[in-house]
Amino acid sequence: MGVTRGWPFSSRTVTSPSSQEGLALILQAYFDESEREDGTFCVAGYVFFPAEAKTFEKEWSRLFGDRIFHMTDLAARRGEFSDLDQDEADRYIKGAVKLVRRRTVYGGAVALNMNELSTMPPIEQRGFRTAYSICCYLVALGVAQWARKQSISSIAYFFEAGNRHEAEANEFMRAIGDSPYFRERFGRTSYTFADKGSVRALEAADLFAWELAKQVSEGRERGSIVELSRNRKDFVLPLTGQTLRSYLDDLRDAIANPEDQVGD
């Protein structure tokens, strides 16, 4: 496994040897997370076909210019968006939702509460120990299952460089690569860490993660989530109580007995 320059971005890509074989279509999946003061934590991901990702980059850059999109800043009209009034901020959000719907082919998001997670038996396996890695696992699993239904088995994964969860993302992707079962199940051909602003598709995942985290935290449906997923088969998975416990048990079982998971 080597380190290469990740096309078309100035970024770091780790590529599996198997990704060099054949000319099969490789999907691109972009992940980001959002965290709120009450402990709500969310990871979201969007999937692009490569040509659509390039078009999205151009359209998103036309919409936001040099402003690097962080939904938390746009919603609060601070940082690079401090000069906007509310109507202008709303127009940016509507434009962003429109582009995400137009150019992505699939999306998924998982949310849980870290305070609740801390009361449950921990997962000791490297790469699966934290709220970030658990959510990331479930989103990536949903993406890979959708890809298999499209007869696509190769996915390039992208994460934000310099993010405080970068080490966890790297550990999670390495754990997948170390297991033949997980590597095949997730279709992982490569993973890349890149800067927002250089890889604008990461900013789409930022939007999705922020919106779901806010919806779960406030306990009421947000129109933006409804609009993002309208007439699509995206998945949104808030985990709490017994549902969270069951998913954690399933993850432990998959780690301990991967041979029993064939066909999932």
Strand order of the largest sheet: 1-2-7-6-3-4-5-8
Distance between the termini: 26 Å
Q: Give the beta-strand count.
A: 8
Task: Describe the global form.
Answer: globular
- Residue runs with pLDDT of under 50 for 5 or more positions: 1-23
* Content of β-strand: 15-25%
Order of helices and strands: EEEEHHHEHHEHHEHHEH
Percent helix: 40-55%
Nearest-integer average pLDDT = 88
Structural class: alpha/beta
Major β-sheet profile: 8 strands, mixed
Question: Over the alpha carbons, how many angstroms does the gyration radius reach?
Answer: 18 Å
How many helical elements?
10
Task: Give an overview of the whole structure.
With 264 residues, this protein is of the alpha/beta class. It contains 10 helices and 8 strands. The chain has helices at residues 50-64, 71-76, 86-103, 114-117, 131-149, 166-178, 180-186, 201-218, 223-229, 241-256, and strands spanning 2-5, 12-15, 26-35, 40-48, 106-113, 154-160, 188-194, 235-238. Helix 1 packs antiparallel against helix 3 (86-103), helix 3 packs parallel to helix 9 (223-229) and helix 6 crosses helix 7. The longest helix is centred in the middle third of the chain and has 19 residues, at 131-149.
